[in-house]
Amino acid sequence: MRTLISTAFVSLDGVVEAPGGEPGYRNSGWTFKDVDFLPEAYEIKGREQKEAGAMLLGRVSYEAFSAVWPDMEDFADYKVMPKYVVSTTLTEDDLVANWGETTILRSLDEVAALKETEGGPIIVHGSAALNRSLSDAGLIDRYHLLVFPLLLGAGKRLFSATDKDAQKLRLVEHEVYANGLQKNVFDVVR
């Protein structure tokens, strides 16, 4: 069974919206303009590319990342990695040709079936709505969180507001950096 890893830049109050500067969000670009850059704090991002066997995205994140990541040297490992997009509206004609093998999944049941296949971990980038749905369905196995020392208030949240039983997490790796950033890696306890 493959491990499904949710990776996110998240504010202390749980916001994940527009960390890299996407238009339309009041605090857009908060990861780079509001916190001093320390390369060592982002080591986990390179490790994720080396360790992952596939990438899973929601439609909105696929459309944003596929427009820029295929030509970026920083994301070269993702170019050749199989990608899966969970969407009920995306068509094969909407997929970009220069980003390698991409498969459209139409449901969380198809994600659950993907987890049963052979291969390395499946990494989920961005995809706030998909992350909430995956969590509610009990499909996420691990979280890689870079927590920024910011309170953003409004914005898309990583975690669902669904009224459900508590979900216990086990901290398996952590580090605090001089700029206030925290790396927290949690396994979901089942």
Topology:
Elements: E1 4-11, H1 30-33, H2 43-51, E2 54-58, H3 59-66, H4 76-80, E3 83-86, E4 102-105, H5 108-115, E5 122-125, H6 128-136, E6 142-148, E7 169-176, E8 182-188
Parallel strand pairs: 1-5, 1-6, 2-3, 2-5, 3-4
Antiparallel strand pairs: 6-8, 7-8
Description:
The chain has 190 residues and is an alpha/beta fold. It is 23% helix and 25% strand. It contains 6 helices and 8 strands; from the N terminus they run E-H-H-E-H-H-E-E-H-E-H-E-E-E. It has helices spanning 30-33, 43-51, 59-66, 76-80, 108-115, 128-136; strands at 4-11, 54-58, 83-86, 102-105, 122-125, 142-148, 169-176, 182-188.
Summarize the structure.
With 190 residues, this protein is an alpha/beta fold. The chain contains six helices and eight strands; from the N terminus they run E-H-H-E-H-H-E-E-H-E-H-E-E-E. The chain has an eight-stranded mixed β-sheet with strand order 4-3-2-5-1-6-8-7.
- Can you count the helices? 6
> What spatial form do the alpha-carbon principal axes imply?
globular
Largest sheet: 8 strands, mixed
Helix content: 10-25%
Overall average residue pLDDT: 95
* SS class: alpha/beta
Share of β-strand residues: 15-25%
- Per DSSP E runs of 2 or more residues, the count of β-strands stands at 8
Radius of gyration based on Cα positions: 16 Å
Sheet with most strands: strand arrangement? 4-3-2-5-1-6-8-7
The end-to-end distance, rounded to whole angstroms, is 14 Å
How would you spell out the order of helices and strands? Answer: EHHEHHEEHEHEEE
Which spans of ≥5 residues are poorly predicted at pLDDT below 50?
none
